[in-house]
Amino acid sequence: KHADVGVAVALPGNGLITPIIRKAETKSLSTIAGEMKDFAQRAKDRKLKPEEYQGGTTAVSNLGMFGIKDFTAVINPPHSTILAVGAGEKRPVVKKDGSLGVATVMGLCMSCDHRAVDGALGAQLVSTLKQLIENPMSMLV
Asked: What's the pTM?
């Protein structure tokens, strides 16, 4: 019924935890960013409550912030999908008119547990996400 999205946070020393943004579909980008900043700090301080990291329907792992170009993330149950976000980097591209140019390109990889989410549905989600990233102002409406 809701998009409860876990966001992977690396813990100091070792380990990983995924605090959950509950009902993400009802929140603005700024609200999500604020919650995530708070969760990340409290996760690193090991001050999250169990209800803040248990459950969730999907997760996001961003190794792009470490310069990793692309990777495949492993689904952590009970999540049924995870989105791996790679680094944005300038690359040569062929534009729609056939000319050469430079664009910032970012890799995304969606892993789906096909027992819960059809891979074609996951592909539709990534396609929609691609459109939103390419047209970020559409997320502010």
From this structure: 0.88
